[in-house]
Amino acid sequence: MADLLANIEALPPLREIIREHELRAEKSLGQNFLLDLNVTDKIARHALAHNKNLDALTVFEIGPGPGGLTRSLLKMQPKKVVAIEFDPRAVAALQSLKDASNGRLEVLQADALDTDLTALSAGPRAIVANLPYNIATPLLIGWLRQIYDDPAHFSSMTLMFQKEVAQRIAANVGDKAYGRLAVLTGWLCRAKIAFDLPASAFVPPPKVKSAIVQLTPKERADNADFATLERITAAAFGQRRKMLRSSLREYEAHFDACGIDPQIRAENLDVASYVTLAQKVGQTI
Question: Which CATH number is 226-283 given?
Fold first, then answer.
């Protein structure tokens, strides 16, 4: 481990890596580079410090950019870090870190939206990432679908989002931010906002606040269908100011069996009730 840490400490500063590879952040790619290594170390510790099986763990990072968070993840010494990067400039910029990693870093030039992480490694997996803001929600939905298929696909996901999105993910029933994302996430994972991040930690500083969300998959006893729950929540929260008897009129025949009050609104129906409704609907398809 000492050699790995020494190798990483000997690398040029991130700003020098950025200059050398002309790696300016591109708005079209949703890039805001996280350069404060104190912050990246904090994220890595929060994500991995309590993992009892680090020697067997593969950590996936999406959009590593110049590699600040990647350095911090490697210092935690998991079995492997797999960095998925779309931008060829960043792939080149990560080469020196890959060389310093003693074989623990793999860099793949790929579109994360088209990449099945579960096909890239066996054994325990975690995701730790400063997600590109423009694809963060679709990525999360895709990973939730995989957790729906098998909660063991990922041991944890520690993800950075715009704070507004983070609040929507971790919201509780009745909260202003409670909606489709909160229902889908709360069904499959325990979710909490770990901490906020200052804009000054990024280059360029984003105009929105950011937050780290910790998601831990949980076992389920229900047999609700993912696509059915997506359809129900889209209908409910697509007309969130209307009562459920209006927004979910198509499913009203199941309300009594599910104990659902037709006069409440979407934000006042808890996750368990949405899941129960999805099960009842699924039984009639």
Answer: 1.10.8.100
Q: What is the DSSP string of 163-212?
A: HHHHHHHHPPTTSTT-SHHHHHHHHHEEEEEEEEE-GGGEESPPSS-EEE
Place of tokens 């280059």: 203
Report in angstroms the alpha-carbon separations of 243 from 59, 133, 180, 232, 263: 43, 32, 16, 14, 5
3-state class of 58 per DSSP? Answer: strand
**DSSP state, residue 265:** B
Q: Regarding the domain with residue range 2-217, which homologous superfamily does it belong to in the CATH classification?
A: Vaccinia Virus protein VP39 (3.40.50.150)
Task: For residue 149, give both structure tokens.
Answer: 């298929």
The two three-digit tokens of residue 85, written as one number = 């990067």
Q: CA 183, 227, 190: angle at the middle one, nearest 5?
A: 30
Question: For the chain, which residues make up each domain, given as ranges?
Answer: 2-217, 226-283
User: Looking only at Cα atoms, what is the longest distance across the chain?
Assistant: 66
> Is the pLDDT reported for residue 28 higher than 80?
no
Whether the CB-CB separation of 197 and 39 falls below 8 Å is answered with yes
Quote the CA–CA distance of 60 and 124 in Å, as a whole number: 11
- Over residues 210-240, the pLDDT tens digits come to 999 999 999 988 999 999 999 999 999 999 9
Q: Answer yes or no: pTM beyond 0.70.
A: yes
